[in-house]
């Protein structure tokens, strides 16, 4: 009877200490996955049927197939056995409450969207063994504030918490949960990976080194950019590269860029002006669609192809083009204002 009373008293005391904030405690749902929750075929985890908050990947799993844990919002903790070498496309996509992740020390491959939209994940540690991280692996995980990589990893490195390839030729992922308003990409980088700055809403300016020649798909999608200077060496922009950058007010495209891709600046609702270079040959579909504040765009003489919805819903727009340009007929047909310049 005395032992029971002592335990009860200690429990009350501990509860009071926690309530007072003397001890920091992270409380997780205690429900754990069991063997019957997994469908495993020849070492590949193909299906998860459980609903546990804590998932422990069985030791006989070598690979996690695509979308196995897709939208399992009940998951808070994941621990992988060291037999796992591959994580498939979208494997944990939409696990919005996942906050504690222990990866396999044998992991070599992380596919596109593997940890996309994991809104509660605040840090990510890349194991030494990882050799491949496919672009967009962390798509929309906008609470991550730091990527950590051991110096023993031969493929990747972390520079002040930002994920790069080991040789610093590419920036792979910027932690979108950071509160910094500006960032300078490391010197020597020549490629900004797809979705690298995706949803970095606090980021207003990014300084890009002169060595960058290519920017991947939706690299700055829905970021907080207000301005950005593109380097002269740039030759390629990915689809939707600045899609939904709603604070961006102006843009100048360097001379080496010949194609403005689909949705390049779509839904940039604060964008007022765009300067296009001689040498540009194509403005793809919806490149400037829904840019409701867009007032001026110059049309270079080199342009040979423009899509009928390139400027869809740009109600304030006046195009500047040269006498004889085919764009005059284009503008008249679509009811877009234009001026003739020498």
Structure description:
With 342 residues, the protein is mainly beta. Helices cover 8% and strands 25% of the residues. It contains two helices and 28 strands. It has helices at 2-19, 327-334, and strands at residues 38-41, 44-48, 54-56, 63-64, 77-79, 86-87, 100-102, 109-110, 123-126, 132-133, 146-149, 156-159, 162-165, 170-173, 182-184, 191-192, 205-207, 214-215, 227-228, 236-237, 250-252, 259-260, 273-275, 282-283, 296-298, 305-306, 318-322, 337-341. The strands form seven sheets. Strands 1-2-4-6-8-10 form a six-stranded mixed beta sheet, with no helix packed on it. It has a six-stranded mixed beta sheet with strand order 12-13-14-16-18-20, with no helix packed on it. A five-stranded parallel beta sheet has the order 21-23-25-27-28, with helices on one face. A hairpin with a 4-residue loop joins β13 and β14. It is elongated, with a radius of gyration of 25 Å. The termini are far apart. Residues 1-30 have low confidence and may be disordered.
């Amino acid at each position: 009877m005395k032992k029971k009373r002592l335990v009860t008293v200690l429990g009350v005391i501990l509860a009071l200490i926690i309530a007072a904030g003397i001890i920091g405690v992270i409380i997780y749902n205690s429900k754990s996955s069991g063997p019957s929750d997994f469908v495993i075929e020849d070492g590949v985890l193909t299906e998860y049927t459980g609903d546990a908050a804590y998932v422990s990947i069985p030791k006989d799993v070598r690979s996690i197939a695509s979308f196995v844990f897709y939208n399992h919002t009940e998951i808070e903790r994941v621990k992988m056995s060291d037999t796992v070498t591959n994580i498939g496309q979208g494997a944990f996509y939409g696990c919005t409450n996942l906050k504690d992740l222990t990866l396999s020390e044998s992991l070599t491959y992380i596919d596109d969207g593997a940890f996309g939209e994991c809104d509660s994940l605040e840090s990510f540690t890349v194991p030494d063994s990882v050799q491949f991280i496919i672009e967009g692996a962390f798509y929309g995980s906008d609470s991550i504030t730091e990527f950590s990589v051991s110096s023993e990893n031969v493929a990747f490195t972390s520079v002040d918490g930002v994920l790069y390839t080991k040789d610093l030729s590419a920036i792979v992922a910027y932690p979108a949960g950071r509160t910094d308003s500006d960032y300078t990409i490391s010197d020597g980088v020549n490629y900004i990976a797809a979705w690298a700055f995706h949803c970095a809403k606090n980021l207003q300016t990014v300084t890009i080194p002169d060595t960058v020649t290519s920017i991947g798909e939706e690299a700055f999608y829905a970021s907080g950019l207000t301005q950005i200077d593109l380097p002269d060496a740039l030759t390629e922009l990915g689809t939707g590269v600045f899609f939904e950058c709603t604070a961006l007010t102006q843009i100048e495209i360097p001379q080496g860029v010949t194609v403005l891709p689909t949705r390049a600046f779509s839904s940039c609702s604060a964008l007022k002006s765009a300067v296009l270079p001689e040498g540009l040959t194509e403005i793809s579909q919806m490149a400037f669609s829904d840019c409701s504040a867009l007032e001026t765009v110059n049309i270079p003489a080199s342009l040979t192809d423009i899509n009928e919805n390139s400027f869809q819903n740009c109600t304030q727009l006046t195009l500047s083009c040269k006498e004889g340009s085919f764009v005059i007929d284009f503008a008249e047909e679509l009811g877009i204002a234009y001026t003739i310049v020498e």
